[in-house]
Design brief:
The complex is a heterodimer of chains A (about 240) and B (about 300). By secondary structure, chain A is mainly α. Chain A has twelve helices and no strands. The longest helix of chain A has 29 residues. Chain A is globular and about 55 Å long. The radius of gyration of chain B is 25 Å and the shape is elongated. The relative contact order of chain B is 0.14. Chain B has a six-stranded mixed sheet, sandwiched between helices. Chain B has two domains: about 220 residues, P-loop containing nucleotide triphosphate hydrolases (Rossmann fold, 3-Layer(aba) Sandwich); about 60 residues, 2-Layer Sandwich (Alpha-Beta Plaits), CATH 3.30.70. In chain B, helix 3 packs across helix 4. Classes of the chains: A mainly alpha (about 240), B alpha/beta (about 300). Chains A and B meet through helix 1 and helix 4 of A and helix 2 and helix 3 of B.
Chain lengths: ~240, ~300
Amino acid sequence: MNKIITILKKELNSYFNSPLGYVVISVFLVIAGWLFMQTFFLEGQSSMRSFFSLLPVIFMFILPAVTMSQWAEEKRSGTVEVLMTFPVRASDVVFSKFFSSLTFLAIMLFFSLPIPYMVTSVGSPDRGVILAGYLGAILLGSSYIAIGLWVSSVTRNQIVSFLLGAGIIFVFFIIGNSFVLDSLPENVGSVGRFLSLTAHFNSILRGVVSLSDIVYYLSIIAFFLFLNAREVSLKKWK
Amino acid sequence: MIKVESLTKKYGNVIALNGISFELNEGEVVGILGPNGAGKTTLLRTLVMFLVPDEGAVTIEGMDVKNPSYEHAIKNKIGYLPEHAPLYEDMTVREYLMFVGRMYGISEDDIYEKLSKVAEKCGLKEKIDAEISTLSKGYRQRTGIAQALIHDPKIIILDEPTTGLDPNQRIEIRDLIKEIGRSKTVILSSHVLSEVQATCSRILIINRGRIVADGSSEDLERMGQKKPIVYAQVEKITENLMPKLKALAGVVGVDMKGSGIHITVDVHIDPRKDIARILVEEESGLLELSKKQFDLEDLFTSLTKGHE
């Protein structure tokens, strides 16, 4: 456990030792805040729904940037050879990297808290829905992170890692899109709807946090973390 | 202490290690020598469990590296410096060594003492708070070696520890390795023969994934022992010169190569005095006379050339 925390701290420090962490948080806040504010006063509703519904798209570009270097950079610089010869399980290293990115996501979302503060100060929104929205954002973001981490472990090039991560997330994003679903046979479409990261997110956004949604996200996370651990424990390094 | 039996490792169709076997005893300082691409790095990576052998067995103090339940025990016994000393550039030397120490499970009570000991030993005291990205190659290498030493392992494995260093840094690192070799089993790899000769009590020469020579520097010299050659550079070669040289006791053969004469001589007789006398008598204008001792470099070249 100590070793997991040691790696987690190291990874978190590396976000904030470089401009990456600050740039990502700033870009997120500026884009999400600006897009939200554009419609907030027009709609005249004290709700954060439009903020949360932006997240699947914004996270698609922000979170692969957070995870792209996690393995790819270790492989490129050769530090993976030091890291993987420590007496530590491959799965522990994967968990550490996952939780460090998740902590980063939590910090990023923390800085968006002025938005719900403002929304509650100008009106009386349903606080439960906002809370569910943040929970959904964490679950959705964690799934994106697990996908991004796995992609980062199969390449040593950060750009490839970023683009491939965003691409895979995009696939998970569009399979729940009604435009795509309508063009598919019904039984395939229902599988698509079930697998789509966004469809489950939208149901949480309505304020209904169902067990099946949570289990769905945890399964996606577990699946990609498993792929990641398998990738690094096979020791197919070159 | 370390036993390698018929170790084979392939990358696709490329055979990196082809049935390597050897045994190392505690306290030995062993140099793995070979041209680039010979399989040195692959061999070391297998010993540290970074790679899994395809065939054959590696045991470290009786523990099989293929058995996952020994993984932590084996890794705790080994300190490893990979090739090019990869380090986390954004950390300071102190942060990095503390990180490594914690990863080896050193307790918070001991870590400061271990850090200061290892920094002292590796000459890192003055750079301890410098960011790694600002360090010279020599200090990076020292940091890498300190990283391999911090948990006080029994076995130290260093992959090309002196590559890319200037001559002064090389001597410093060489001295550091000798110092470490007094108390630990050390395995290092290099493609530079003089490095290995200077630091190691035993040399394994590998080429194309096979061991082609194994022994002390003296053993290898004996193995490649040829008759010494006396080289004489002269201005002119007179008619009588060659027959007179050939007639000398201890001279086995005489060859002309450019303006030089290569005189192969018997191992037990040194006829240099007589050779010099004849060259002067014949007024051939002697410019240089030297005896070429057997060179390990020759053995290395003869064992490894033409197989690239």
